[in-house]
Amino acid sequence: MRVGVVGLGMGLHLANWCRRLGMEVVAACDRDPGRRAEARDLLPGAAMVGEWPALLDERLDAVVLANDFDEHAPLAIAFLDAGVHVLSESAACADEQQARALLAAERRSAATYSFAENYVFHPHIQLVRGIVDAGEIGRVTLVEADYLHGMAPDAVAGLIGDPAHWRGRIEPTAYCTHTLSPVLALTGAMPTEVAAFPVDAADPRPAVVMLVRLDNGGLAITRHGFLQGEPDSHWSWFAARGTAGLAESVRAAGDRAWSVRVRKEPWTDPAGTVRDEEREPAPLFLPDGTRVEPRAEGTVRILEGFRACVEDGRPPLVPVLPAVAASLVGVAGARSLRENSRSVPMPDLAARGTGSVPSSAGSAS
């Protein structure tokens, strides 16, 4: 399996994991010569290019897109049209037009689109999904998901206050797929409307809360951005409340942060006993017996799933429709913020409209 990588920030991390998992990284792209030089030492034999269209000449089976957060859709469409399987590391699209164009490109391509949303496959979220799938807590009605960084104020200002960096130009709601994608995977639902609220009206950009109505009648509450109380489970906390119980990440330090608490009230038990227990995730091991660190499990599972998709014809772990839906929640949330937290309806992505997105000239990471 011949793989190319666009963007050598996070892309270099993903390329190294691709190699560890048995994929051949044959080409990589970044506009920064320094990053290309660093990658040349770490990816021996791989062609290094400064502009992504050059990768179309490399006879790739697949490409990993890890370029700037809000610039993935044009590249994904170009590679799909060239018959190259796509794994997109960040936001699937920046607006509805891109979403519809990406959906159309995936439909007409012989290749597949996979969303590299590793948070769907983190240990604590996998535990909650197993509990829900087993029917232990009944029908899920409320899901809560956090993606929070407890950074110092000056560090936050330096990160989101720089208009030259993608973190400085995106909307406060845009980086929401680490919360929304697990919600959609857990429930099998699609978002129908979004209301977004700044946590601090005096300083609205660093952190937001979104209320997302789902088409199965349930509700999701997501919190993301820069707030104190960063979870040890890779900045993620997750909870599902069902009609017969609760499953939530353990709010604890260290390894316990990956565990899940299950709570069921006495009325759910014939003996009238409260059930309140903590469960640990099972460890993941590589074929050579090496244990995978919990924070890397999602990445490993996503890349293994991508290889199975390309080599064995299996369906994508996170396919294009939930990918664009999760990304468009951030777009709807940004509109809600601009309109005083008014509830904003989601577009009907089932409508099979076609569109086109002009090809981007950049390949920054």
Number of helical stretches of at least 4 residues = 10
Terminal CA distance: 23 Å
User: In which range does the helix fraction lie?
Assistant: 25-40%
Tell me, rounded to a whole number, the average pLDDT. Answer: 93
Helix and strand pattern: EHEHEEHEHEHEHHHEEEEEEEHHE
Rg, Å, rounded:
20 Å
What would you call the structural class? alpha/beta
Low-confidence parts, pLDDT < 50 over ≥5 residues? 352-365
Describe this structure in words.
32% of the residues lie in helices and 23% in strands. By secondary structure, the chain is an alpha/beta fold. It has helices spanning 10-20, 33-42, 72-81, 96-108, 123-133, 153-160, 166-169, 177-187, 294-312, 320-338, and strands spanning 2-6, 24-29, 47-49, 62-65, 85-88, 113-115, 140-149, 191-198, 207-214, 219-226, 236-242, 245-249, 260-264, 275-279, 344-345.
Task: Please write out the topology.
Blueprint: E1 2-6, H1 10-20, E2 24-29, H2 33-42, E3 47-49, E4 62-65, H3 72-81, E5 85-88, H4 96-108, E6 113-115, H5 123-133, E7 140-149, H6 153-160, H7 166-169, H8 177-187, E8 191-198, E9 207-214, E10 219-226, E11 236-242, E12 245-249, E13 260-264, E14 275-279, H9 294-312, H10 320-338, E15 344-345
Parallel strand pairs: 1-2, 1-4, 2-3, 4-5, 5-6, 7-10
Antiparallel strand pairs: 7-11, 8-9, 8-15, 9-10, 11-12, 12-13, 13-14
Helix pairs in contact: 3-4, 4-10, 8-10
